[in-house]
Write a structure and sequence with these properties.
By secondary structure, the chain is of the alpha/beta class. Helix content is 38%, strand content 19%. The protein contains 17 helices and 18 strands. Strands 1, 2, 3, 4, 5, 15, 16, 17 and 18 form a 9-stranded mixed sheet that branches. Strands 6, 7, 8, 9 and 10 form a 5-stranded parallel sheet that branches. The radius of gyration is 22 Å and the shape is globular. Bound molecules: zinc ion. Zinc ion (ZN) binds next to loops. The site of zinc ion has 6 residues, from loops.
């Protein structure tokens, strides 16, 4: 058997997250895996390739626990949108996508994440009216071509937003009701069998690009659909992610439908487990958190998206105290507008602090950085091989330029990665032992050559979705009157004593 390629990284400093330190360290890499970490001058085979990391701070690749590759072509299209308005805008901002658009959107997202120090992502990708094996393969190819690790899940449901919000359609003039028909999704069986086909035909190396299943929002799915997704995930060893208790409208609807929280309902259906992750969880109560902790499930915190859509601020301290695995994500560019995990970490830290002056309830920078690496990796189902720079883990390493403005001076590596870094110091990025960003540029990708392609796609989609945009404008007013009204339904969250959560009552 041929010996695997050996690489030794010399002269850099390696963050020690817990100690807030950055001691000098050399790293020996065999194939795609870290073999040994040692003091400067670490012994390496004579034929090992040497990477010079002088003047660099190395940290584990950031892991984006929740995003949507399809959202990238829609960056910046909205401003004062609630989650419910964003769902109403979906046909306008995401409609009429060709397989090439799906590839391009996902590729741009991967490129942005890599350039900003993120080496793996959990991508929930949407196709209307049902997923297709070809569409999913196009998105997988985008990550493969960018050289990024990903968990890729068809984002699915069997009911549209308009079918599941009690009273919403009734509140509309008859003329508008016809519009809502155009949101109707494919029948349950068609969607489930498309997922099965995609999982069966998976052609990517699952260490790099792994499939998952994403029943998008629990009440957008019938019980047989949810359990159908669960059975498929089990059969193919795929993780599951869902948007759970993201907005107050969602918890109010859950109470109306089931007399339960979404988490309670999923638990009742037997869907919680170590392979299950919640995206958002802004409106989780202590009982929900306990259920998730008991099942070893994860919550991926997306503070940027939660703020932008007015959903509130998740109780991340409560989750950690109760033993829930916590990850961090950006959410899609259509609701957070960038794919910057440094910003997501900074907001995760600040959001925990804005809740009140009790510093015991705050997240520390080391907790945030661990959540954005190990925590997210666990949510992706990569917990045993991604998220740390340690022997046996994949060599996913970010190299920050210590001569960049963010690091003059370097006082505390952990605090500065979370609070100071904004992505502009990312010099190089390695995924699985392979350099994918070098000297601030993607390796083998000429972004300038994409400019014309992206503009052509944007212009064509704007034209193709002009009718959908008009439909959004017709529906916007009624959705934006009805849903905030529904959100005024009293709903008490049993949070921790001493906190300041008045905004959630
Ligand atoms: Zn999302």
């Amino acid at each position: 058997m041929a010996r695997k390629k050996m690489v030794v990284v010399r002269g850099g400093r390696l963050v020690d997250i817990a100690k807030h330190a950055a001691p000098p360290a050399d790293i020996l890499i065999e194939g795609d895996t870290v073999k040994e970490i040692g003091r400067p001058g670490l012994a390496a085979p004579a034929d090992a390739e040497v990477i010079d990391a002088k003047g660099m701070l190395m940290h584990p690749g950031l892991v984006n626990g929740h995003t949507h590759g399809h959202g990238v072509l829609a960056k910046g299209m909205g401003d004062k949108w609630t989650l419910e308005l964003l769902l109403t805008a979906a046909p306008w901002i995401g409609g009429n996508r060709t397989a090439e658009d799906k590839y391009l959107s996902t590729f741009l997202g991967a490129a942005e994440m890599l350039l900003k120090g993120c080496t793996a992502a959990y991508d929930l990708t949407f196709e209307f009216p049902a997923p297709t094996p070809e569409g999913i393969a196009a998105c997988g190819q985008a990550y493969a071509d960018a050289g990024m690790r990903a968990v890729l899940a068809p984002m699915v449901a069997d009911f549209s937003f308009f079918e599941v919000i009690p009273g919403l359609v009734d509140a509309m003039p008859a003329a508008l009701r016809a519009d809502t028909e155009r949101y109707r999704l494919a029948p349950r069986q068609q969607t489930l069998s498309a997922i099965r086909k995609a999982l069966k035909a998976w052609k990517f190396d699952q260490d790099l690009i792994k499939p998952a299943v994403a029943p998008t929002i629990p009440h957008h799915c019938s019980d047989p659909f949810l359990t159908g997704c669960f059975r498929l995930a089990r059969e193919f060893g795929a993780p599951i992610q869902s948007h759970v208790q993201e907005s107050k409208v969602q918890v109010v609807v859950g109470q109306k439908l089931w007399g339960l929280t979404q988490t309670g309902h999923l638990d009742k259906l037997g869907m919680l487990g170590p392979d299950f992750s919640v995206a958002h969880g802004v409106w989780l109560d202590r009982d929900d958190m306990r259920r998730l902790a008991d099942h070893g499930s994860s919550v991926v915190h997306n503070p940027g998206s939660n703020m932008r859509l007015g959903n509130g601020i998740a109780d991340t301290r409560g989750m950690l105290d109760l033993g829930v695995n916590l990850g961090v994500g950006t959410d899609g560019a259509s609701c957070s507008d960038n794919q910057n995990m440094y910003e997501a970490m900074r907001l995760a830290s600040f959001a925990s602090k804005v809740r009140g002056p009790d510093t015991d309830r705050w997240l520390s920078t080391d907790e945030v950085l661990i959540a954005a690496t190990e925590g997210s990796a666990k949510a992706l189902g990569f917990g045993d091989k991604v998220g740390r720079i340690a022997p046996g883990y994949k060599a996913d390493i970010v190299f920050l330029d210590l001569a960049a403005i963010n690091w003059l001076p370097l006082n505390d590596a952990t605090n500065q990665i979370v609070h100071t870094e904004d992505g502009t110091s990312v010099h190089s990025v390695m995924v699985g032992g392979r350099m994918v960003v070098r000297d601030r540029k993607l390796v083998g990708v000429d972004l300038a050559s994409l400019v014309g392609k992206v503009e052509a796609a944007r212009a064509r989609l704007a034209k193709a979705n002009a009718e959908n945009k008009k439909m959004f404008e017709r529906l916007e007013g009624v959705v934006n009157r009805f849903c905030p009204g529904l959100a005024r339904t009293p709903y008490h969250i049993d949070h921790f004593a001493g906190g300041h959560h008045d905004h959630q009552h």
